[in-house]
Amino acid sequence: MEDSLTARLKRLVTNGNEVLEFRLIRDLDDLNSKETVFKPEMTYQVFGNREIIFGYQDLKVQLFYSAGCLETYLGMTYTEKVNSEHEGVEADEVLTKIAEKLAPDVHYSLSSFTNALAKDDTFAPHGKLIHSFSLNDEGTTKRFEVYKADMNYKGFKEYHQRIQTFLLWYIDAALFIDIDDERWQYFNIFEKYTTPMGTSRYATIGFATVYRYYAYPQHIRPRVAQFLILPPFRRMGLGTYLLQAIYREYITRNEVKDITVESPSEVFQRLRNYVDALNCSTLPSFKPECLKKGFNNEMVTEARDKFRINKKQARIVYEILRLRATNVANPEEYRAYRLDVKNRLNIPFKRKQNEEAKILRALKNEEKRTYTSDNGLPSEEQRKEILETEYHLLEDEYKTVIKRLEYAADL
Question: Which of 107, 144, 177, 409 has the lowest tally of Cβ within 10 angstroms?
Answer without folding.
Answer: 409
